[in-house]
Specification:
Helices cover about 35% and strands about 15% of the residues. The protein has about 240 residues and is of the alpha/beta class. It has a single domain, classed as TIM Barrel. Strands 1, 2, 3, 4, 5, 6, 7 and 8 form an eight-stranded mixed beta sheet that branches. A hairpin with a 2-residue loop joins strand 3 and strand 4. The radius of gyration is 16 Å and the shape is globular. The structure holds zinc ion (ZN) (2 copies). The site of one zinc ion has 5 residues, from loops.
Length: about 240
């Protein structure tokens, strides 16, 4: 890969309840590994032990935009609900830079491939939800062709989640990643590479994901976060 990943947009801190670093420890780890930007995307309410919606309103005012020379971005990893809405509401996301939406078993029950896909497409129609986390877990099957086409149309990127490659115990994860990555190339849909770090030692770690992309000959132009500028444009950061 000629480009490295410049911004890790999917990371968790102590605020998520089952992650183990502070904001500053993650930022220091980001600096040490050479990232330009770090996105903080705590779990939204609905995941046991995570922070209150209040944090997503307050953090953008309280945490500096620059820590150790790393640009800090404020996000959320939201939860898809069975009616296609999300646990952190658009109003509660107002002050954030971006939303990521993912399917998590605590908040979602499988309704079959078509309805799961409808629900997720409804959620990514939210104007601040630019990303889908780990759509690889076959516990909640998705019609990837339909999802990838909708994501392209809505300006949303699908994640290649490095943690799910390192710990591939989820249902058909690796196979599903190959399926949607091929479709993303075919339909020119963007992806992002996420560490999904729950500990500072995992911030900015993408080796396995990058190896998979390399092996597939994935089009690097479609990767949103291999350039901080590209990432900013994707979330319309400069227009704020
Ligand atoms: Zn997740
Ligand atoms: Zn996560």
């Amino acid at each position: 890969m000629k480009n490295k990943i410049e911004v890790d947009i999917h990371t968790h801190t102590l605020l998520s309840g089952h992650a183990y670093g502070t904001v500053r420890e993650n930022a220091l780890a980001a600096k040490e590994i050479g990232l330009k930007g770090l996105g903080i995307s705590e779990h939204a309410p609905g995941i046991p032990g995570t922070c209150d919606a209040m944090v997503f309103r307050n953090m953008p005012h309280s945490v500096p935009r620059d820590l150790y020379g790393v640009n800090i971005y404020f996000g959320v990893e939201n939860n898809l609900l069975n009616d296609g809405t999300m646990t952190l509401t658009p109003k509660q996301m107002e002050r954030l830079d971006y939303g990521i939406v993912g399917i998590h078993g605590f908040c979602y029950e499988d309704e079959g491939i078509e309805k799961n896909t409808d629900n997720l497409i409804k959620a990514i129609s939210d104007p601040k939800t630019f990303f889908i986390s780990h759509p690889d877990d076959g516990t909640w099957p998705l019609d990837y062709e339909r999802l990838v086409k909708a994501a392209r149309k809505l300006g949303v990127a699908l994640e290649l989640n490095n943690s799910h490659i390192v710990n591939p115990w989820r249902k058909n994860s690796i196979e599903n990643m190959h399926t949607y990555l091929k479709l993303c190339m075919e339909h020119k849909t963007n992806i992002f590479v996420g560490s999904d770090a729950h500990d500072p030692s995992r911030v900015g770690r993408f080796e396995e994901a990058l190896a998979m992309l390399e092996e597939m000959g994935f089009d690097e132009d479609l990767i949103v976060n291999n350039s901080e500028e590209k990432f900013r444009e994707f979330i319309r950061y400069n227009k704020k």
